[in-house]
Design brief:
Two copies of one chain form a homodimer.
Chain A (H helix, E strand, L loop, with lengths): L1 E6 L3 H13 L6 E7 L3 E3 L4 H6 L8 E3 H4 L4 E4 L2 E5 L4 E4 L8 E4 L2 E4 L3 E2 L8 H4 L6 H19 L4 H7 L1 E5 L3 H18 L11 E5 L12 H13 L2 E4 L4 E5 L2 E4 L4 E3 L2 E4 L4 E2 L1 H5 L4 E2 L2 E3 L12 E3 L4 E2 L1 E2 L5 E2 L4 H20 L12 E5 L5 E5 L3 E5 H14 L3 H16 L15 E6 L4 E3 L7 E7 L2 E5 L4 E6 L4 E2 L1 H5 L7 E4 L3 E7 H11 L2 H16 L1
Parallel strand pairs in A: 1-2, 1-9, 2-5, 9-21, 11-12, 11-17, 12-13, 20-22
Antiparallel strand pairs in A: 3-4, 6-7, 7-8, 10-18, 14-15, 15-16, 19-20, 23-24, 25-26, 26-27, 28-35, 29-34, 30-33, 30-35, 31-32, 31-34
Helix pairs in contact in A: 1-10, 5-6, 5-7
Chain lengths: ~525, ~525
């Protein structure tokens, strides 16, 4: 029994599995296993539409076990991969034991992940835009800002609630701000207290034109004109570097007061891929044109995490797009089949058919076959037609078509779906000079300083009464005795804090105390006893 | 300008608001405000269908702002209500300041809440079944148990994964276990490794027959027969009292190994209602037949949180059902209108039309007008017809109809929607004699004992090397040094612990230490300085 294990359920992994299932149908000597963190496959091209709401929340996702009948789908997190022993360990689930899987062929299709580490503040206060939960969280949040702004009496807060900043003017940044703008404007119609002109959408892009990597200049300019016409501000040669609870911070130091900051910066390598001892080029796994990892005989890589030569051009490599991953899957399935059955392997050869970007509001831009350029409604209709045809499964097609139809005939449905209670502990980032809270505010959180310095100020004259730094805490007084803050806290430097909700504070303080001191002695004691 | 403030967006609150909007249309002298924690209204009767999946996740909910045009909808949490000053304070949102609202008329429609406090273990390990997020969490969890069971090699764990215990055989318990059974069986079809006969559904009911409060005996017996035929076990005169990560615990002390425990026990009074100084009868706010709270002139109560006389019978009170709340809303709106305009108020008078309970799988039971009893497919068709007609809004009707249609023609879509990362800290409850972890297990969590005693055991002979109690912690060694547990931990008494994920442990330990000791001295010091 040969075991083929596929890591990752994105376009690369799923299409490889689909073709493998076909090739080995009715053969009992091969087992195909796919490991993915989620139990669904996300149809990425339509993710921005989830934000806008023109399709339903689950319309972009398909159940992996239904999509891949004949393949074992393990919905698990990978702990480690041992290339020598040909083993994979999966983190425990419903038990305390990790599971080991052996493989004969390994396909790595783990894509990449959003990684805000290094850029302080973005991790804590910016929305990512990569997977389904990002799209839903962003949609929920925009609904919340509009609802809160509608009956907001503080004009400054209202302005910040209606300001939306998106970092990155590539494909996803451009698509998502167009959808965000549509959503905010449609929602605002429900509230006479919101003037549509007060909604500010700002796109921050480090290059000189939109989608500079993906689209030719004419289409970039068309997209730019279109977004500007709809009231979206675009700032070129500018960069989003940080965020705080108050707003976005640009490279120049400029601050934009906003309660919504989105960052679509290029994502980084998956930590599991990083931990594997494989040859890499710019963080991606180096393979030959057959997608076999350099120096290996049974390890393959596909999609965004792989560095696969594009043999149609000289010294070129396949771009990280769904279009390529889908075709790679077919060739990779063949090559694994050929390896097992001793047949001839194939090289991956594909020429990009074109690029499409939806810009919301019944418009899009497209470049086809490197020649034809279309924009506006026709491009949009083409976008919908192409992606609809490519949607996996008839029921998904029906659902999306019905959603599109409903979206045109009925007003927007703005339900904020909350699944989990808010976290007991939140990490927050503030820049120097920002106030964390003001005297007289409601005392809702206790703060612990992870990094940085703050000053405690008292009275109208803001008289300084104390300075606190790393490891110290503040805000406990209003939690213990009183309803409102008895002092103002302002940051001297950039500050990272942990905020603990009032209700959870008691539970934690009762249990964590003395732990650090005790931990070493306890450990030693027990070690002695056990020997 | 008169302000009418409605607390709560359930059937009572929403229907009161709808009728008030109609009555005061085009009058600029009245403002209607509704405060609710969520931005949507849940159509409760169809909630069980969300678990089963025959309708979409958002098909049961409607956006409040769209449903109630002409009413200000505040999506906020209530901090307190001051009946003397006629003020309500809302907890801060996007700021640190609470908001105050004044009212001239106050409508309390806060329903009741799930409250597991007092029954240790249920709070931590049982699913509630009350609101949308409960229904979704339960659905996600059932999908996960089936997927995990499918490729589970440990037969004991597989058995526990496929065992489902529901506590409470009233309306919601009966409806939900029927839907759970349908879902589990439909999902299992995808996996040749799961024998449908291995799926165990157990309904625990303290009375002698199902839905004893709501349905006549003949229909109870019919429902019982039907559920039993589908393989559901029913235990009468039995009670679910606790739960642990291993399973359910009954009043008799019997343990049922199960990874899914649901409790539909009667819910308790909303804490905000509890905090208000109003006359109460068995926890509910006492009103007259006009729904005016006893002793008040401008405070009204409606729905599940109100104790409203039923004047069609002697010494009877309105039951807590949607049917009543909807009709109460109309009368209450009239009475507030009458109060403001100096007209004649009305008393609430309504006779129950009947009761319907869906039992999944195209069957239901119904009693109409206290006389006619129907069961099976006809009752089910009636159930769907009645509740479909009552659904608010045409687009919702379209969506639900389309979902019902799709559900019949395409196979089940089993997507597990995860919105938030799992919590860094979890509260867990174990019973005496249970193992928390075993030597050699993967070290994934650190544990702090909140209450109870555990013993640390070493080696195959389980030699006792230590005993730990409240405030002490264990499991830190494998987090610090090693991958797997170096000892076994077993509970001597019932134990409550906090479990902290490996990844979050470092962050917390670095910050919480010494805090308890320091907090009092710091506080004193700052108090001195500020005076």
């Amino acid at each position: 029994m040969k075991k083929i294990v596929i890591l990752g359920g994105g376009f690369g992994g799923v299409y490889t599995a689909m073709h493998l299932i076909k090739k080995f149908r009715y053969r009992k000597d091969v087992e195909i296993i796919l490991v993915n963190r989620e139990n669904y496959f996300v149809y990425q091209p339509m993710l921005a539409e989830v934000v806008g709401g023109s399709i339903g929340i689950l319309d972009t996702v398909s159940s992996l076990s239904r999509l891949l009948k004949g393949c074992r789908v393990y919905v698990r997190e990978i702990e480690w991969v041992d290339l020598e022993k040909q083993q994979i360990s999966l983190l425990p689930k419903y038990t305390h034991k990790s599971s080991l899987i052996h493989y004969d062929h390994l396909v790595i299709g783990l894509g990449n992940v959003t990684n805000f580490k290094g850029s302080s503040g973005l991790h804590e206060h910016a929305f990512a835009f990569k997977n389904l939960s990002d799209a839903l969280s962003l949609r929920n949040h925009i609904i919340e800002t509009i609802e809160t702004a509608a009956y907001q009496t503080d004009p400054e807060l209202k302005k910040a609630l209606l300001t939306y900043v998106v970092g990155g003017g590539g494909f996803s940044g451009t698509e998502v701000i167009a959808e965000m703008n549509d959503l905010a404007l449609r929602l605002a119609k429900n509230y006479p207290t919101i003037n549509p002109k007060d909604i500010r959408m700002i796109l921050i892009h480090s290059k000189k034109r939109l989608m500079d990597k993906e689209m030719p200049k004419t289409l970039s300019l068309y997209a730019e004109k279109l977004l500007k016409k709809r009231g979206i501000e675009i700032r070129f040669q500018s960069k989003l570097v940080s965020a705080t609870p108050r707003g976005a911070i640009l490279e120049t130091g400029e601050k934009i007061a906003a309660k919504t900051v989105v960052s679509t910066v290029p994502s980084s390598i998956n930590p599991i891929v990083e931990s594997m001892q494989l040859p890499k080029v710019r963080g991606k796994i180096a393979t030959d044109a057959q997608m076999l990892v350099d120096g290996c005989t049974n390890v393959w890589a596909i999609g965004d995490c792989a560095h696969i030569p594009d043999i149609t051009k000289e010294e070129a490599f396949c771009p990280p797009t769904a279009q390529y991953a889908v075709r790679q899957g077919k060739v990779l399935a063949h090559n694994i089949y050929a390896s097992i059955r001793g047949k001839q392997k194939k090289e991956f050869r594909f020429k990009c058919l074109g690029m499409l970007a939806a810009l919301g509001h019944n418009s899009a831009v497209a470049e086809l076959f490197g020649k034809i350029r279309i924009s506006g409604f026709i491009a949009w209709a083409l976008w919908r037609a192409i992606y609809w045809v490519k949607l996996p499964g008839i029921s998904r097609k029906l659902k999306v078509a019905f959603s599109w139809f409903l979206d045109k005939v009925v007003p927007i449905e703005a339900v904020q779906l909350k699944l989990a209670p808010s976290q007991a502990i939140a990490s927050l980032h503030y820049e120097s000079g920002e106030e964390i809270f003001h005297e007289g505010d409601t005392g809702d959180y206790l703060y612990i300083i992870v990094k940085g310095k703050v000053e405690i100020l008292k009275g109208e004259k803001l008289e300084k009464i104390a300075e606190l730094k790393d490891g110290e805490f503040f805000g406990e007084m209003s939690l213990l005795n009183e309803r409102s803050r008895t002092a103002t806290v302002r940051c001297i430097t950039a500050v990272d804090v942990l905020a603990i909700r009032k209700a959870d504070f008691g539970m934690l303080i009762a249990n964590f105390s003395e732990m650090k001191e005790k931990i070493r002695s306890t450990e030693e004691e027990r070690m002695k006893k056990s020997h």
